[in-house]
Amino acid sequence: MRLDPIELEIFKNLFVSIAEEMGVTLCRTGFSPNIKERLDYSCAIYDSAGQTIAQGDHLPVHLGAMPLSVRAAIDHVAMEPGDTVILNDPFRGGTHLPDITLVSPLFLKRTGPPAFFVANRAHHSDVGGMSPGSMPLAREVFQEGLIIPPIKLIKRGVLDRELMSFILANVRTPDEREGDLTAQVAANRVGETRLREITKKYSLKRVAQYAAATQDYAERVLRRTIASIPDGEYRFEDYLDNDGFSSAPVFIRVAIRIHGDSAEVDFTGSDHQTSGGVNANLAITLSATLYAFRCLVQEDVLFNAGISRPIHVIAPPGTVVNAQHPSAVAGGNVETSQRITDVVLGALSQALPQVIPAASQGTMNNVTLGGTNPHTGAAFAYYETAGGGMGGRNGLPGISGVHTHMSNTRNTPIEALEHHLPLRIRTYALRHGSGGAGQYPGGEGLIREYETLADTSVTLLTDRRIGQPYGAQGGQPGSPGRNTITRTDGTTELLPSKARIELHPGDRLRIETPGGGGFGPTPSPSNQATPK
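Above: the chain sequence. Below: its structure as tokens.
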């Protein structure tokens, strides 16, 4: 069948619109502020082999890793029409335990394999474990929450109420969790419905051929992009502040070897997996690496299975970029993914110095908290991330107060947070002077100060409180972040980047996020660059 380029564009937009509509459904039917307000979820559609066709404009750290969850569902569960598989096991396709993935097959014939799969991943504000919010300072994955292997949540269209009850019995906020899980089910149903509609209209054969064509096109475009990079080996290293238990930095090292239109990304030499929870599994490392290379592409192509074909990733088992069971992984998905992105882009900047920007904030500034609401007597658990400074770019300064790289969520509006939780936000502002100086300066970080109105347990998983986001081409690094507590008696305590603390009514937690690095040398006062 000859493929028409105009039809290819039409089908490309059809595919991505399905994933986007799944996301809208999840947002509108979700229960928690993390889903409704922060949009901490991702949706995608897959072909009969479990290869990505298209994904929504959601979270890079979810989407690059989710194909391994689809693969795990296919390999471990004999799926039938009407089934939905649930999983979060980081060592069988997941990332960290709060990210729960639902995978549904779409059968269009009475016999044979599924024609497509649809899947979504959502970050749940609590999945049990040793601290509220399920992002603890842990030494093994068993402490981080309930581990769900690939298993059927829905069997032939009927919810497994016993499995749902088992899950809800192991979390602090069961009503909220059930609401978010059923919203995920609804999102997959929308994806299935839209795929049925387009296959009925255009035929399965035609839809499948154009799905394959979008993958091939993405591969061709990325190969052309890689071919424009000079052949050679490019090395870079950077580090996480610590793992939450030791004060030693955790180094990630990469060597990128460009050979024609393909790339080998070798993380050999990265530190061994740690005692704390900053370990990344292979899915996270693949996700961050593919994201960095996709950022090089100027054309409007889908982020699908074709993007991975020209890139070979080497991540030695047992290292912080390919941690093995039962290592703790809560921070790997959120913090180590950011540093992997930094080192890959840092290596590429040696080959493309005028293309790659300075480092962005390099952390998601994770805050999890929970306790008992004194007004209702009910347990509460909450999770959020905070934006910071984006790195300066050749021709433009960095953007201030935004989520960068592997995070693509919104902030939780103050009104929504204060409505749902016994908290008050005392300050929410840009952190002036935190961006790195340069011809094109880095963006500013944020200040977010919480006042607790009830006894509250808080866990912080942050980074770049010691190390600084690097500048590029003579630009200065961004300012590191800072975490502090002010108690009701006026005393102030400086916190490390990873900490578990207890707050009482009136205590204040202040999060100051890093700024982005600057790009280019700082111009003389008589020749200042004018930001565009």
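Residues 5-218 form one domain.
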